[in-house]
Amino acid sequence: MHHIDFSRTTLAGSLSVALLGLALTVLPATAGAASPGVIAISADQQTALGVRLAPVQAATAAQIDLPARVTVPLSQQAVVAAPAAGLITRLLANPGDAVTSSQPLAELSSPQIAQLQRERSEAQSRLDLAWRQLQRDTALVNEGIVPSARLDTARAQHREAQTMLAERDLALKLAAGGAGLNGVAVLRAPIAGTITEASALPGQRVDMAVTLFRIARQGQLGLDIDASPQQAAALQVGAAVDVPESQARGVVQTKSAALNAGQSVLLRVRVTQPGGLQAGGVVQARLSLPARAGVWRVPPAAVTQINGRDAVLVMAKDGFRIVPVTVVGRLNDAVMVSGALKAGDKVAAASVVAIKAAAGEVAP
Known about the structure:
The chain is α+β, with helices and mostly antiparallel strands. 28% of the residues lie in helices and 35% in strands.
């Protein structure tokens, strides 16, 4: 007959596992629903589960901090593009420079510019010839040497030559070329402001319509803020915005109706007090949420799902009362909800899943 010897360590481990299983079995049995919508759980069980309570607060004016990009409104910007394909021969301004309207920014050498200049020169020559012909025919008609019909033809040719020259002048002006036959276009600033972007480099070949400079007019600034859909829902157009680090202020001007590529809502803020803001900077913006009747602040961990909808667990005499809520908005450190709550209520803000498990609920 074989003798089987169990060590004390093995017996102790087996006994511990059995006792733990018994404790887990007993807890749900004693933490049931004392009445509909109530999870019965004793003070000792709350302590064992690590339950922490937090007060329900009325949602008075709240604040939320979000990163923001300092921008210049599109209406205050202008771009300078290459009027033709060519080579950048000189760079006359740099990023960050303050420029005046019509100030030269760069020179571009291009065969297309040379062709426009040649066509303009030819149109000028035809106009000069037509003008001399018109003068001769006018004199001949006045002397009765040629019929008046010849003068009508000369006048028509002169008008046609004038129109052709006007077209060539316009084409050359749009291409920023001068009247001389040098194939050079001088790119100029269309507005006074600061150069915020410059992609042109000396010796660089560029294609037609490529943006070389971006200029922002000094004055009005804005903020672009990416907010989550829940945060945006709690914000209204006209909400106050502060940038404490720059002593700047503004108001929410528009709120995008569609999500962007990052699945966030774009908020555009009009800056009313620029303070120390600089275009292109990234700052921390503080947005103010207005007070709303019937809306309460609870910790984020207090909101859970029971029977497929949002709810909080409110401390009651014999346990926790299940109160369905509707999430109105989410802040950095709180959730704004509406529901059958009142000031002074205390909600479970930790171990909520454990409470639900003790009552036989399935964690979300």
